[in-house]
Amino acid sequence: MKVSLFITCMCDIFSANVGKDTVEILERLGCEVDFPEAQTCCGQPAYNSGYLTTTKETMKHMMTVFRESEYVVGPSGSCVAMLRSYQDVFHGDPVWEQQAKEFGAKCFEITQFLVDVLGVVDVGSTFKGKVTYHPSCHMTRLLGVKEAPLQLLEQVRGVELVKLPHGEDCCGFGGTFAVKNAVISGQMVQEKADHVLETEAEYLVGGDMACLMNIGGRLSREGRNVKVVHLTEILNHC
Q: pTM here?
C-alpha cells in the first residue's frame, strides 16, 4: 500500500520526530511511504481568519501536489479535517469540486488510517508509564476520530491508560483563538492542565501538536513534571 506523508506545519517546524515516528510505524506495517516535498500548509490558519481567496490557492496547490497519491496520511486530526473540508469550500465549483471530493476521501489521520484502513489496533509497541489522552476538538468533532487512538493505546504493552477528566473540553488553543482571545484561552488551558494533573499521569498524549504545545507550555510554566508527547512516539516505541 502506497502512502504519502502529510507532515503538517507544526510537526515539520517544531516536532520533526513526529514525522519520523509516523513513517516508521507505517513502514513497519508494510506501507511504502513517500514525501512530496512541494507540500505546504493545509490553509487552515488563513481560512479561519477569513482569507478565503488566498486559502483557495493554497488548497489547489495541495490537491495538485498529492494528486497521484494513493493515500495521504498525517499526524494531525485538525489538519486532516481541513483537507477533508476542501470539498465544502469548493462546493459548486465546476473545476475543483470533484477533485476536492476525491482528495478528501483519501486523506486520513494516522490512527484513523491504522485502525480503519489497515485494520490494525496492535502495532507491536511497548511503553512503560502512566498515560492520559487528550482528545482534541477538531480530531473528534470535525474528523470524527474518537475511538481509534484509545484502541491503539490500550494495546501498547506496559502502558497504564487513565481517563482524562472532562477530556472533551477544549484546551483553549484553537489556532488564532488563542491570539485573539488570550485571556479566555489562558483560563481554558489552565483548566485543562489542572485536569491532567488530577490523573497523576506521567505522560499526556494527543494527536494534535498545537494542542499538546499549548497544554505543555502551561504545565512547563507551572514546573509540573508531566511529559507531553504525540501519540506516535508511544506507538513507535519498541
A: 0.95
